[in-house]
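User: Hi! I'm working on a homework problem where we have to compare a predicted structure to a textbook description. Could you give me the structure for the chain below?
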Amino acid sequence: MTTITITLFLLIVLAALLYGLVRSLIQSWLDYRLRVTFLERTEKDPDVLRPLLDNETALARWVNPPRPVNRQDYALTGLFLGLLGAVGIVCGFLMGGDRTALGVYLGGVACMVLGLLLALFGLLLRSMRKSPTTPAQRKP
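Assistant: Happy to help. Predicted structure tokens:
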């Protein structure tokens, strides 16, 4: 493979990863904002809930939606990427001082940094997907 082909493949993979991250972030942010807005409006005027209370299954689905099974868990993916980076760093360090060892070491560092960022992003998404709780519902 030529360098251009490898670079093109890497750019396509990075674009797909970026698309997935942005899509998940926007979807989680919209869900979070809708829930907070709904809770704020029902706090101001509880009569808004009367039509929804007649249909309890719709309300239960909206408050606690079923999680899709095929959704990507970015925190877990970031953790595995970080572990892969740590293995690359150790292997590159143990291989010695030639160019291959340096490539393995730098690739491990890159995986470690990307894994850390992806895991932090996944934790942010997890906190945004939780249903907002009132202070009375929080455990002390």
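For your comparison, note the following. The CA atoms of residues 38 and 123 lie 24 Å apart. The two ends are 59 Å apart (CA to CA). Good luck with the assignment!
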